[in-house]
Amino acid sequence: MRTVDQKLRDRRRRHILTAAISCFIRDGFHRASMQEICKEAGMSPGNLYRYFDSKEAIIEAIAEDERKENATYYAKLFRAKNFLKSLGKMLGASLKKASDPNYERIALEVAAEASRNPKVAAMFAQNEAETKASLVLALRDAAARGEIDGQLDFEAVATILIAVADGAIGRMSLDPALRTTALMPTMKIMITRFLRPPDGP
Predict the structure, then answer these.
(1) Which of 130, 132, 139 is nearest to 159 (CA)?
(2) What per-residue confidence (pLDDT) applies to 170?
(3) What is the total count of domains within the chain?
(4) Which of 3, 17, 153, 180 is the most exposed, having the fewest neighbouring CB atoms within 10 Å of its CB?
(5) Other C-beta atoms lying within 10 Å of the C-beta of residue 160
(6) Which SS3 state, helix, strand or coil, does residue 131 take?
(7) What is the sign, positive or negative, of the torsion defined by CA atoms of 26, 30, 31, 35?
(8) Which of 164, 140, 143, 151 is nearest to 88 (CA)?
(9) Cα–Cα distance between 91 and 163 in angstroms, integer?
(10) Is position 184 within any domain?
């Protein structure tokens, strides 16, 4: 059981991350300073640095939160009773998240920083590798149970599915009027037809 001190520390950590994300959305990751994050969080630099010693450490925490969220998705997907239905729900959740302008902005800011900062790039490359490995494992398991086409290249399928989710974020930046949730029904039909066995219904 967590101690009271640990719970308080977790709340403060989450408060700092929320403040940092607000700064990144408003000013961009590259321009936002630790001083601005302190001001947004209402904390002194000395107090904030007890939790995060740099912007990279904050980004690492954001990446870890994303990794945990992805792990939850794939835990539900692996050995799901209806793989294609569960996959559709997972991709639908990704599209719904991408339709949030704040999520879109922070995702693009982090991607831009990763192109400049090797340390940030390494963090997200690791997340990407774990996501792909989990998806490939779930695809192979579904194929072994006859739910999807076993002749597919599962590495390629995983890459395509991840690209669909990531691409939705890019489309939002190019077409702000687009609401990706409206694409969900068509996306689910396409994914089902693409993955199901040749003699499937």
Answers:
(1) 132
(2) 73
(3) 2
(4) 3
(5) 12
(6) helix
(7) positive
(8) 164
(9) 11
(10) yes
Q: What is the pLDDT of residues 159-172, one digit of tens each?
A: 998 888 777 777 77
Domain around 79: 55-195
Closest CA to 17 of 53, 54, 56, 62: 62
Q: Verify that 63 and 107 share a domain, yes or no.
A: yes
Tell whether 46 and 136 lie within a shared domain: no
pTM value?
0.79
Instruction: Specify the residue for token string 């209402």.
Output: 42
Tokens of 49: 């640095």
Report how far residue 77's alpha carbon sits from residue 199's, in angstroms, rounded to the nearest whole number.
23
Give every CB contact of residue 42 below 8 A, 6+ residues apart in sequence. 19
Q: For 83-95, write each residue's pLDDT tens digit.
A: 999 998 888 887 7
56, with CB counted inside 10 A (0-12, 13-18, 19+), is middle
Distance CA 149, CA 200 (A): 9
Of 156 and 169, more confident: 156
* 112 lies in some domain: yes
Same domain, yes or no: 89 and 1: no
Token code pair at residue 169: 């974020």
Q: Look up the CATH number of the domain holding residue 174.
A: 1.10.357
Q: What is the DSSP string of 33-97?
A: -HHHHHHHHT--HHHHTTT-SSHHHHHHHHHHHHHHHHHHHHHHHTT-SSHHHHHHHHHHHHHHH
